[in-house]
Write a structure and sequence with these properties.
Blueprint (H helix, E strand, L loop, with lengths): L1 H46 L3 E7 L6 E2 L5 E13 L6 H11 L12 H11 L1 H6 L3 H10 L3 H15 L2 H5 L3 H15 L6 E4 L5 H9 L7 E11 L6 H4 L14 H6 L12 H5 L1 H4 L4 E7 L5 E7 L6 E4 L3 H22 L6 E7 L6 E12 L2 E6 L3 H4 L9 H10 L9 E3 L2 E3 L2 E3 L6 E3 L1 H7 L2 H11 L14 H12 L26 H7 L9 H12 L3 E3 L4 E5 L11 E4 L4 E4 L4 H16 L6 H4 L7 E10 L13 E11 L6 E11 L7 H24 L1
Helix pairs in contact: 2-8, 5-6, 14-24, 16-18, 16-22, 17-22
Subcellular location: Cell membrane; Membrane
Membrane topology: Single-pass membrane protein
Catalytic activity: Preferential cleavage: (Ac)2-L-Lys-D-Ala-|-D-Ala. Also transpeptidation of peptidyl-alanyl moieties that are N-acyl substituents of D-alanine
Amino acid sequence: MGNKKKKRTLPIRLNLIFFAVFLLFSALILRLGFVQIVYGDEYKRKLERTEDVTVDTSVPRGKIYDSTGKVIVDNSAKNAITYTNTGVKSDEMLKTAETLAKYITKDTKKVTERDKQDYWIMKHPDEAEALVTDKEKTALAEKYTDSDEYNSEVYKLQLDRITEDELKSISKDDLEVLAIYREFASGYKMTPHIVKNNDVTDKEMAVVSENLTSLKGVDTTTDWDRSYAFGNTLRSVLGSVSSSEEGLPAESLSYYLSKGYSRNDRVGKSYLELEYEDVLKGQKEKVRTQTDSDGKETTEVITEGKRGNDLVLAIDMELQQKVEDIIEKQLKAAKQMSGTKFLDRAYVVLMNPNTGDVLTMAGKRLVTQNGKTEVQDDALGNLTTSYNVGSVVKGATVLTGYKYGAISPGTVINDTPVMIGDTRKKSWTDMGPINDLTALMRSSNVYMFQTVMKIAGAHYVYGQPLSVDAEDFTKMRNAYAQYGLGIRTGIDLPNEQTGFKGTETNVPGKLLDIAIGQYDTYTNMQLAQYISTIANGGNRMEPHIVKEIRSPVSEEGELGAIVDSIEPKVLNTVDAKSEWIERVQTGFKMVAQSPKGTAYTYLSGKSYSPSAKTGTAEAFYDGPQKSNYKTLQEVMNLSLVSYAPSDNPEVAMAVLVPWAYNGSVDNKANLKIGEQVLDAYFDLKKERQKDEK
């Protein structure tokens, strides 16, 4: 009986085992079928998958030319080695850095103490782990439940406990590896980052190129630097470009990222380079790299790169250099002649009054450092600094008087001192009865005082108080603004200043000062726009540095097709009759060409028949030495506005020499500079006409 029971039990167990195996196999078959049907394609794609990476490569910026086709700003090519982080781990990155270090030399000056500590920990993981005891780790784990916080605190302890001797174990070769790794790690994912672009030898380029298969993420390319054919001439206006290390400016990061820039892209940082960034930046090259399951890489150019479009400026660099030389020589001579300690700068703008083309924008500044004086470019001072400019504004005062009926062409006013309360105000000499033309020619202050009092409707009695209000100041300022005084000119450069408006609008004498340019301040660019408005008959033209935008071409020095042309833009037409403007033009011509004109000594007898208005403003010094004095220092600002020829103006000029002298000899720097600049313009024109013939 016992044996029979055993025989029956055995088949039952076997059957159970077979049944279980059957169920397992059935489940496996079902699972395999399910995987093949539902996930089969996905797993197949994973098996055959390719890593697909698209990288944008930066291109050189557009060039900048002058109005005659000369290259001002170019790109100077140089060898470069880059690294693109495709998401590899730090240990793989370090291996690549070690390999690259065999082929290139790398400056280690930027390696910091922290870099060395991080590197030591990477190279000595076991020793680093032992720097923190198990007890300390347990305590930290209890305090910091978040794993990232815990790991960070452990890492801080490790950094603190690395000794100087341990860091000294890092060899010179290790430092080069570290310097390369540092560049690798500082780059942004999927963006080429410059590893080395200074002094990369042809041998380094060749060796790295030959070994790219063992240098994942590394590539050789051509980088560039901005080069300047005319040295420092106009450099402040041209602006600057960020380096590959700087990348996008922090204050504009979001803006540029939203426009598709990469974080380490180079962009214009100031003035023309910044103002025309969208034009100069170019189109990046897009390259796609595919890596199959066997590790084989193939690259494909999706979009060809194209350097940025070129700018053609209205500025004539030959003329610009001549003007800068004149300013520098006359500035030094004027300082020596007057012996003034304040004179340190002078400005000149030449503009086509009919189009707004800025032909020259020059400025120079004397800077003394360590007992040595050098001359620095300050062309930007024409629009970023403002001063009391004096009598050059009297043309606008007369035209405003015509507008409000205070005077009319030919009105005679007796030039004798005026007395407002106990304040006496006069011209540089008593002129007696004079009309509007003589007032401009001889630069009468009193004529302007009487005119502005009539504009304000004030009842003037010698020695008695005068009643004016804020609206009278506003009326004068609004009238001046039609000519460009006290408002932005609209020039295509950032950071233009409008000048300062005096706030004492209840002081009658200040209203009179406005009429002769000795209260509000103006920039030299505003003076250029003002005289251009009078020269062309009443149109306030928008000044512009850039004349054309052209497409890039491969031929050296050749200009491409015009993409955009900056057309002349009339900002406003002044509210004045043509005969009024012609009357002021006649007065300005007398300033330059009549024997009693204030510019006659310097501008008479010129073949180009100039018109002009001079200015001398009593002002207070507000320059870099101001803090050395407890009281305000009185100075004289000199100015000159002019255009030529008088009958058909082709060039307008503004000259401004702040703090020209103080209680010393009038050096006439404004007139000397102005005469020589106009001579240079018309002499150069004659030379070119001869060459063309």
